[in-house]
Specification:
alpha+beta; 3-stranded antiparallel β-sheet; 249 residues
Length: 249
């Protein structure tokens, strides 16, 4: 039986100001560095107000430098780290603050010069950091049930609405988000960095961007059940996100 939590206003002040166009989406109020979310208006589904996190400073100082070995793959190292250091929080603002640190690390500008992605700019990285931060509030239970869904689950649609991106531009951003820069070392960085949010980044998309986005899910989550539920729930909510797209007169 599903129990719906009593929504409480979510507030956080981040180190950088977010794009004011986030205010186009229901339930989000951006005022410079301060973000306020009304869960009742923001979430399409909000059933679980507890998240697993690790302080970013702990991840940065104790995990990011660790390398895998023939006896210990990076995924096992990450799982062990989450088991040792993970803690539950009901403070969604704290989740957003940690997520901002995670994605500021993963989508940092130093990568632009070396990875051969000429169409990706520093401005795109800012979009990625902001959207991925909001996505950290999404949640999937261990049995694969999708318990928290916000508009940023549907990554290309949400970024298109907020940043006035075409479908092609939104899909390009989505591919970078999902692809770990199309680089094995960046993928390893992402595995370790996502321990701060309790696990790994799981993608709803298959072989091509299809608006299904993703979620940070705990290791051991049933991906089979997750895929079935995602396939049955997304179309209506994508349309609701798209309805807020601003069109030129």
């Amino acid at each position: 039986m599903t129990t719906t939590v009593t929504p409480k206003t979510i507030t956080v002040e981040l180190p950088e100001a977010s794009d004011p166009r986030w205010n186009r989406l229901p339930g989000i109020t951006v005022d410079g560095k301060r973000i306020t979310i009304d869960p009742t208006d923001y979430f399409f589904r909000f059933e679980n107000s507890t998240w697993l996190v690790i302080d970013w400073e702990t991840v940065k100082s104790e995990l990011l430098h660790v390398v895998e070995t023939p006896a210990a793959a990076v995924e096992q190292i990450a799982l062990d780290f989450v088991t040792t250091h993970g803690r539950a929080t009901r403070d969604a603002g704290e989740v957003l603050a940690i997520a901002f640190q995670v994605y500021s690390y993963l989508f940092r500008e130093e990568h632009l010069a070396t990875l051969g992605l000429p169409d990706v700019t520093a401005e795109h990285l800012r979009m990625l950091r902001e959207a991925a931060t909001f996505m950290a509030l999404n949640k999937v239970e261990l049995d694969g049930h999708i318990s928290n869904v916000g508009p940023c689950w549907f990554f290309p649609s949400a970024t298109g609405v907020v940043f006035d991106l075409s479908e092609t531009e939104g899909q390009m951003l989505d591919e970078v988000y999902h692809g770990g820069w199309f680089n094995e070392y960046r993928r390893i960085e992402a595995i370790k960095a996502h321990t701060a949010l309790g696990g790994r980044l799981v993608h709803g998309c298959q072989s091509a961007p299809n608006q299904s986005g993703g979620v940070v899910a705990a290791y051991g989550t049933s991906m089979a059940n997750f895929a079935v539920e995602l396939a049955g729930m997304k179309d209506e909510w994508i349309q609701r996100v798209e309805s807020h797209r601003v069109t030129a007169v």
